[in-house]
Design a protein that fits this description.
Number of helices: 8
Number of strands: 8
Largest sheet: 8 strands, mixed
Radius of gyration: 18 Å
Strand order of the largest sheet: 1-2-4-3-5-6-7-8
CATH superfamily: Alpha/Beta hydrolase fold, catalytic domain
CATH class: Alpha Beta
Number of domains: 1
């Protein structure tokens, strides 16, 4: 779960598609009559090897994965530099779809909407060897559901940060959201100077329906986990306080993913819940893209044929 710190300015209203930078541009995707906004980065000189689909957490936006305080924190530009396409999607209820979906959608509804949006993406853009879901916090819930349902063609793997299967306290418990920015950010020294002054481009209103749905996740994950059949990686920040990540909790999390061919669980040092905006962002993103490389090998992508 995420929440803006008290010093963050209010969220800017959604804008029409426009250029962001030489490498990253705004696009829209169609999902069964719902218009979904996104940021897209593509390699400059070659077709993409695969496509990273980045899904932000509650109270954030697609810009979470393209932090501008320090250029090296951007997942999108790093992925493009390494030969991948990367699309950061404003989840349903955020960005351009916020007016149409003011209450947002449940994780199950989001999984269906995002599956349709990614179908539109694959119809219009070269996605290379397939899709790789990289999700943060609430974004991990529709990502893991899509993996369990097997509705995405050529899904290479899933990488999730800031999401597990057991809360330290339910997100709807009285007082949990009050002052919750400390849970979401951790010590402010973990973030580059200016991170919170530039917050308008990153933070967003949490749709009420999404927050109400969040408390059901532990039981929901228990029903989905055994159906995930692609490599999965979980990362918990050193200062993660929303989710349990003690050894017994992680043993249970791993055991639930009984059908996944590979399960990796790691801790990211010197990081708060919002890893991709902190000093640790580049280290985390490099590890996630390394896991994508390993997942591609698992699927036989790039292997030379044997005689």
């Amino acid at each position: 779960m995420t929440k803006a710190p008290p010093t963050a300015p209010p969220t800017a209203p959604p804008t029409a598609p426009a250029a962001v930078s030489a490498k990253v541009g705004r696009i829209t995707l169609q999902a069964g009559g719902i218009t979904v906004s996104a940021l897209l980065a593509r390699p400059l000189y070659a077709p993409p090897r695969a496509t990273v689909v980045a899904l932000h957490g509650a109270g954030m936006s697609a810009a979470y994965f393209h932090g501008q305080t320090r250029p090296e924190t951007s997942l999108l530009t790093l992925a493009a530099d390494l030969g991948f396409a990367a699309v950061a999607v404003d989840r349903p209820g955020y960005g351009l779809s916020s007016a149409e979906l003011p209450r947002g959608q449940t994780a199950a509804e989001q999984a269906a909407t995002l599956t349709a949006a990614l179908g539109d993406l694959a119809d219009r853009y070269d996605t290379g060897a397939g899709l790789f879901l990289l999700a943060h916090s609430f974004g991990g819930k529709p990502a893991l559901r899509m993996a369990a349902e097997g509705t995405l063609p050529a899904l290479l793997g899933v990488d999730v940060s800031g999401c597990g299967d057991a809360y330290t306290a339910p997100p709807t418990e009285p007082g949990t959201r009050d002052g919750g920015w400390r849970r979401s950010w951790g010590p402010l020294r973990l973030y580059p100077p200016g991170t919170f002054r530039s917050g308008a481009a990153v933070v967003a209103r949490v749709p009420p329906g999404e927050l109400a749905d969040a408390a059901r996740w532990p039981a929901e994950f228990g029903r989905l986990a055994g159906r995930i059949r692609v490599p999965v990686r979980f990362t918990f920040a050193e200062y993660e306080t929303w989710w349990r990540h003690d050894p017994p909790a992680l043993d249970r999390l791993r055991s639930r993913l009984s059908a996944a061919p590979r399960v990796v669980i790691e801790h990211q040092p010197d990081a708060g819940h919002n890893i991709s905006l902190g000093w640790a962002a580049r280290a985390y993103h490099l590890k996630a893209l390394g896991f994508l490389e390993e997942s591609m090998r698992h699927h036989g992508v790039g292997r030379e044929s044997r005689t």
